[in-house]
Amino acid sequence: MRLRLKGLTLLLLVVIVVLCSGVRLCNARSGKHWRRNKSPSTSLLRSKGKGKSSSSSHRQKGKGNQNPYQPSPNAPVSPSERPIQGKRTQGPTMPAPSDGNSYTMPSSPPPPAAEAAAAPSPDTVFNVVNFGAKGDGVTDDTQAFQEAWAAACKVEASTVLVPSELEFVVGPISFSGPYCKRNILFQLDGTILARTSARAWGSGLLQWLEFTKLTGIAIQGSGVINGRGQEWWTYSDSNDDDNDDVYNVELEQMPKIKPTALRFYGSSNVTVTGITIVNSSQCHLKFDSCQGVMVHDLTISSPENSPNTDGIHLQNSKEVNIHHTNLACGDDCVSIQTGCSDINIHNVNCGPGHGISIGGLGRYNTKACVSNITVRDVNMFKTMTGVRIKTWQGGSGLVQGIRFSNIQVSEVRTPIIIDQFYCDKATCRNQTSAVAVSGVQYENIRGTFTIKPAHFACSDSYPCSEITLTGIQLKPLIVPQYHLYSPFCWQAFGELYTPTIPPIPCLQIGKPAGNNVLSDHDLC
């Protein structure tokens, strides 16, 4: 009897085990791993965090399930990653899916540190409107510009913003260092107008908008700097009338000294791009004692008869690159003065104007040094000269290492000029000393002229040497008011590497015999 009871008990245990497996009462059989339940506080935090923002910095507000590789639409974009117009930018690369139902996240997300460092912050943008500028084309906004600059000056990589669709009247102002932080951006999208009141200029100033002793300064944008030079060009020189009455001051003539519209002095790593400068009373854009200058996609424009309105003026500056720029003015499109070296000008349109000039050098018996200048791939239309070197008598120093290449001229009066007897008056006193000119290459100068194809007027004491001509093809264009002349040479020596059109037989082949050797005083 006892054996039967034991057998029945064993049988019942086997049945119970079988029934447990059939109704899936064991979690292990359903493929779920057993784990210890979390504490109530942890579970509560998890449930509250779904779909809502967290105080931790790596979560984005209102984006509970947002892809961590997709940048926020409100996040600032670094300049290097801003989309270029007409080009597509590639978005972040998503991780490749794994063989399972979901992809494997990388061990760490892409580091945003580099992007954040270059990205502009609202705290670094100083809008002149926020400092009281009206931008109505009437109110004097000079003070607002000064205050915006003073604030930006204290912040590295800051931006002074001149917003679009507004016109700001600004008087003479200096945006100066040397205690300003580096890499300030002057974002010019609106229009800056010069003041036209004679009172604003006093007895005369040499510059209107000036940037001095800065590192990494850049001006960019689609805006305009308007010097309103008509107010200066139409007035004659100021007379001796000392009437300072408020009523009559607007009727007074502008001072004799006229300002440059935009000047950079003593600065390095300077960039000017995109903007337009029009109707400066004198020179439009000047770089003085600067190093590392980049000018591109710039437009300069003033009437052909506007006096002394050089486009770009370079002095005591090195490592300058000017390209893809349109220059139309009443004087030299580009003027290169003493102390300049390593200048590269290319892909420039020039005209009207006086061409691209080196000089005048050596005025008032001064020493002048210019070297390593390249002007190439330039179009000139209806300019007074093409490529020119001009020096005053009585000077000293040296112009050397000059290359003019691929210059297309159209209706240019005299495309090629070296003039060591330059004079802007009726007569100038003859002097024996001169700024020497050596090593000038002319390559592929082609097009039409209206007066003379080439003019080499060199010094008896310091003849021009090492002039080379290659691929010169210049054809006369008859214009009623001009008389055509043959090429002219005086004390010019060099080589003809190819036949020229027209022939230039006056260039003396070889080197000058017994020419003066430059003294230590003359050497650069």
Structure in a nutshell:
The chain is mostly beta strands and 524 residues long. It has helices at 2-22, 40-49, 113-118, 142-152, 198-201, 230-233, 246-249, and strands at residues 125-127, 136-140, 159-162, 167-170, 173-176, 185-188, 191-194, 207-212, 218-220, 224-226, 260-265, 268-273, 276-278, 285-288, 291-296, 299-301, 312-315, 318-328, 334-336, 340-350, 356-361, 367-381, 385-391, 396-412, 414-419, 436-449, 454-457, 464-470, 473-476, 488-490, 492-496, 508-509. 11% of the residues lie in helices and 36% in strands.
Could you please describe the fold and organization of this structure?
The protein has 524 residues and is mainly beta. Helices cover 11% and strands 36% of the residues. The protein has seven helices and 32 strands. The protein has helices at 2-22, 40-49, 113-118, 142-152, 198-201, 230-233, 246-249; strands at residues 125-127, 136-140, 159-162, 167-170, 173-176, 185-188, 191-194, 207-212, 218-220, 224-226, 260-265, 268-273, 276-278, 285-288, 291-296, 299-301, 312-315, 318-328, 334-336, 340-350, 356-361, 367-381, 385-391, 396-412, 414-419, 436-449, 454-457, 464-470, 473-476, 488-490, 492-496, 508-509. The strands form two sheets. It has a 21-stranded parallel β-sheet that branches. Strands 5-8-11-14-17-19-21-23-25-27-30 form an eleven-stranded parallel β-sheet. The longest helix is centred in the N-terminal third of the chain and has 21 residues, at 2-22. It is globular and about 130 Å long. Mean pLDDT is 81; it is low at 20-117 and 236-251.
